[in-house]
Amino acid sequence: MTGRAEPPTDPRFATVIDAFARDRRVTSGTMMASVGLKVDGKIFAMLVRGDLVVKLPRERVNALVEAGLGAQFDPRRDGRLMKEWVVLAGDDPPWVEIAREAYDFVS
Question: What is the model's pTM?
Fold first, then answer.
């Protein structure tokens, strides 16, 4: 992985970064004031205020929200929800697993 960012303080996200470390298409860096990962220049996962935020198909985001596992991402905290982004505060689903799902969706 190129473009390494400062290691995040959350070890769960450090594990996500490590999972993509050998993928040359993946870069890490600061985006939207958060540490995140991109594939081919497109953001697919980031750590925002201690939570994992990933880009997934709208149907998958809705399913995670309905299951009580996440919330739609509101980057400006002004009520404008991003339909293909979900915030996961807990460890279920596992962060590396859901980040791989996001990677597949974005790439």
Answer: 0.88
